[in-house]
Design a protein that fits this description.
2 domains, about 300 residues, elongated, Nucleotidyltransferase, domain 5, alpha/beta, seven-stranded mixed sheet, two-stranded parallel ribbon, about 10% strand
Length: about 300
């Protein structure tokens, strides 16, 4: 389908009351719209019933709320088939436009896996959450909390180390990557140190490792504010495309939420209330060494056997 003759660069006024449903600011929505517009060449065929800004808004609401196509059709005063065509057409385009860039990461990376319930039984398996799910690996930048890599989804009954080895391990070379004990065996991932019996040594280095690693769990929890990652009803590559879009949307929001997060205060048992530091975080020397990528500390803390 070719662009509608009613396409404009601004969202028509009648749809602006739906902006809060996206979880984004108007500036962020304009950024997404500009990305989509650059990647949509004119195509022959019947014009779209909805202008491009409205179609982008529809997809963003679909990802944030996970409403059914029937509910979206009622919300946008169009047919259910039109909603389905818009989602099917725009989701791959936005996935390509918003895909995270690993080169944007500074400092060490943190990796963790998460399960996403998906209805498509051809790509899922019953996992530890007793639902048919997929397993995906999320890698973030430890400093800025931006998602750098969102790995391709595998069946949910696969262990994190198996999924990581086949999806993201080849991208981890020449980077300091922190992970939990489930990634033991991947030499490029620094896991908690173990003793001669194979048990994790729960010393100060372990506690520092755990404090830093918690950031990826917080980011994954925020990614699941987009309800499409809590129960995806679409088939095929829809979950992979949706994951890339959500990761890109989070990266648009992250600089605002964590703009002062690099102001760390060393020492103290509680988060510091330093003057001029809004997001101060208590970090001891071990944590600061991990964040700085201190190779000696990483070599002594990891079990890269």
């Amino acid at each position: 389908m070719k662009p509608s003759p009613t396409d404009t660069n601004t969202l028509p006024h009648r749809w602006r009351n739906l902006l809060p449903l996206t979880g984004l600011t108007r500036t962020q929505i304009q950024t997404v719209y500009a990305m989509a517009q650059q990647r949509l060449p004119p195509l022959p065929g019947r014009p779209w019933a909805l202008p491009l800004p409205v179609r982008v808004l529809l997809v963003l609401i679909h990802l944030r709320t996970n409403l059914t196509t029937r509910a979206l059709a009622a919300l946008f005063h169009t047919s259910q088939s039109t909603v389905d065509r818009v989602i099917h057409h725009l989701v791959p385009v936005l996935a390509q436009a918003l895909q995270p860039n690993p080169a944007a990461g500074t400092g060490p990376w943190i990796i963790d896996g998460t399960l996403i319930p998906v209805h498509d039984q051809s790509i899922t398996a019953i996992s530890k959450n007793y639902r048919r799910s997929v397993n995906t690996q999320i890698i973030i930048c430890a400093h800025r909390r931006r998602v750098l890599i969102a790995g391709r989804c595998w069946p949910g009954n696969r262990n994190d180390v198996i999924v990581a080895r086949h999806t993201v391990a080849q991208l981890l070379n020449d980077h300091v990557v922190l992970g939990d004990g489930g990634y033991r065996g991947i030499t490029t991932i620094t896991t908690p140190r173990r003793d001669h019996t194979g048990r994790i040594v729960r010393d100060e280095q372990y506690r520092a490792h755990r404090r830093i690693r918690a950031r990826v769990e917080h980011v994954i929890a925020r990614l699941k504010d987009w309800q499409i990652l809590r129960q995806c009803r679409r088939r095929g590559d829809a979950i992979n495309h949706s994951l890339q879009i959500v990761a890109g949307l989070w990266n648009l929001k992250a600089p605002i939420q964590f703009k002062n997060s690099d102001n760390f205060v060393i020492g103290g048992a509680y988060p510091a209330r330093a003057a001029g530091v809004r997001h101060a975080c208590w970090l001891d020397k071990h944590s600061m060494d991990l964040l700085a990528g201190n190779r000696a500390v990483l070599d002594s803390a990891g079990n890269n056997e």
